[in-house]
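ingest -> fold -> write
write: protein_1
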Amino acid sequence: MADLVTPSFGKVTSSKTLDGHTGFIWDVALSGNGEILASVSNDMMIRLWNANTGHQRGAAKDNGHSNWVRCVRFSPTGRFLATASDDMTIRISDVNTGFTYRMLQGHTGRVRAVEFSPDGRTIASASDDFTVRLWNVSSGSLLKTLNEHSGWVRAVAFSPDGKTLASTSDDNTIRLWDTTTGNEIHRLIGHASSIRAVCFSPNGKLLASGSQDKDLRIWNTTSGALLNVLQGHSGPIRVIAFSTDGNLVASAADDLTIRVWAVPLGLACVRVLTGYSGWVRAITLSHDENMVVYTSDDMTIKIWSSA
């Protein structure tokens, strides 16, 4: 791939390739300050890297997970790391010591996704047991179980104000939930197949969803109305990311491309990034958008930055 752009269109020219995992890398996450990168894989390793140098800070296989680790997220302060696994648990670990601070148990199926609320007090988890669960980070106690889905739950995302949670499922629906009451606010119907990715815009007014049906859909979060159906990918969409200013949204699919869509231009596709050697499973951006990290099925992590 000749180059990669951040959603603000600034070209990032330098790149690093991080090697070490011996299995598909399911997910990557950047700490809020952009200094630490975490990655998880079906080799069951959780690795921490210096995002600026690419040097590995540490690796753990003894944090308690006994099966593939599918998702990793930093808490808003960067102190804790949450990991979700096929062993049906979520682990909250101290980033500096690796100590497991809390183990969240209760799901009866693989846990595919986990997200911290914006204030860091709550964790949402998505599972093959058809449920979404909300947990208290401090105590580890279960707050609510959201039961309306009728298929595996693939992804969850908090709105920027933390008042709404979105979840996607193999039942081809997206549910918007009130995080205080646990009530369903909207049921978004339109995708023709399993929905693998979901993301709120930075102002919380839009929701983007990506599906195995190859479509990227944009929804109004207040009314639940469908605003746009964006077509162009020739494979299932796995990843969605909004730019920090909300003007662009990027989608990655099994067609080995990343497409960048411009919100101010009616969500026209303004860039197609090619050259990947495998499915892009995760993308993460630093808050200043000077760093883009992605991973694909080649078992490596690529860091593109302006530095």
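write: protein_2
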Amino acid sequence: MGLIGRRLLFLPDAPSALASPPGRRRLLWPPLLLFAMLALWLCMVYSCAAATTGSCAPAASSSAASSPHPKLLLLRTKNPPPPPLSPGDEEDEEGGEEEEGILDGAGPGPSSSALSSFLNGSGTKRLPQAVIIGVKKGGTRALLEFLRVHPDVRAVGAEPHFFDRNYERGLAWYRELMPRTLDGQITMEKTPSYFVTKEAPARISAMSKDTKLIVVVRDPVTRAISDYTQTLSKKPDIPTFESLTFKNRTTGLIDTSWSAIQIGIYAKHLENWLLYFPIGQILFVSGERLISDPAGELGRVQDFLGLKRIITDKHFYFNKTKGFPCLKKAEGSSKPHCLGKTKGRTHPSIDQKVVQRLREFYRPFNMKFYQMTGHDFGWD
């Protein structure tokens, strides 16, 4: 064997860079360089596949170190969003707004997005301890958004409609819709149609007999006209308010089968709730005073829920254009916001004789409602 052959055979035992002649060193560099490039490429492919953020990183540890909130990423990946409501379930009976953007231009800004992610990922999902059960067009959306300013209130924005439309999905499904809460916080939801749903009281009682109930009530005549106005905005070809109000205009017989009229017979619906809940477990909020004195009504609500009175006059300003109070600072925003464009619609002109006939119709029911609640709402 020649000298070169012997050198190659014992190459591992000798310093390669010194033992190999210049020509041989030049032949060894290309394969080594190719191997190094292949290894680097495989490392990058592995890092991209393993990254949870969808962006390539040299290594998972460096990606986590460069992130300002690595724990938030972990929380988001561990807690998937709740199951979506079926089509149509998101409809807000107060005007069609959904959870995000319920306030004009509102929504978490850059400064609050990290905090929002943290709150959504920590705590525990619980069944609601308080439910706003009614009434439609009474002011439930305003009340809910005002309450969400309180740091100890966590509420679903969209209406779950669990106890009237989705009850067969079960309590586990319902719980998944709820936001996560920390110790000392209250979970809430609002669905105004519960108040007029015959099965709702028994179903809520079966969930928890201790559930606190809130009903926002409003002059039933004004409420009916507001209800009609909302429907008219969606279906411009519906009959007139007057034709829907009466079974027979000549005799003045009111058509109580029309939902806009039927909802306002508060005493009748309340009787059904009192079969399952004591009157002291139900708070009745005045829709009129929620406009004229929002801080006062919110004070009563906070007391009822066992919360510290944090929401006060300083949180509100009166919007003359819309005709109702707005929040100076809404949840997730540092700017003043009012409820959406569907609020404060101009009511159509209704014949005063029709209005007067409706007041006569509702008067005995209102008197009974005052007696049942121990509160005169001053609708007459």
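write: annotation protein_2
Residues 155 and 243 are 39 Å apart (CA to CA).
The domain at 124-236+258-347 is CATH 3.40.50.300 (Rossmann fold).
pipeline exit 0
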